[in-house]
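Course assignment 3, question 2. Fill in each field.
Student: A.L.
Task: Predict the tertiary structure for the chain below.
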Amino acid sequence: MNNKILQDLNYGVYVVSSKDETKNVGCIANSVMQITSSPATIAISINHENYTNECIKKYNKFSVSVLNEETNPEIVGTFGFKSSRDIDKFEKFEYYEIDELPVLEDSNGYITCEVIGTLETDTHTIFLGKMISCDKKMEKEPMSYKFYHKVLKGKSPEKAPTYTPDIEEEIKGNRWKCTICGYIYEGEELPLDYICPLCGAPREVFVKVD
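Answer field:
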């Protein structure tokens, strides 16, 4: 099988959020879609191992922040490669609450939903959410997964539904890879003060790709 055909499917980049007993939680998702119009119903896919999955099941509500191409890449690194079990991901980013759910300021807008059904796969839960409210705040180009891969040079987290370990890009020139989030830096040398633009990791965690 040639798994590269999977990269031709269209995906966006979103932050799906909910709550636990003490804080807001969230993770990056690329599988978000509207499946009915009246009432408006949204489907999202979240890995069983993501803490956000557990929280959505308990809280029974979730929000979707629609990221754009100018969104701070560190949002993707934080929500995609760190766990809400360990940190408050919203602590360093501006957000507001709608329907008692967190929504990121640095996004095109939001959708809030009440869970009305679930479907379990081997690795992911598909949540069906009846839309409570939504709004569009910006007219910027929505961030696509193609933009995330080709422009931001980001990699799919292992918990993402689109994660495919045997798909590798052709290596051209010197490249260093962030061992935290998979970001690839291209250049003659990795600067001494370099910080990963996706996850904020220091130069020391980068390894040269042979």
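Instructor remarks: Residues 1 and 120 are 25 Å apart (CA to CA). The longest strand covers residues 124-136.
Grade: pending
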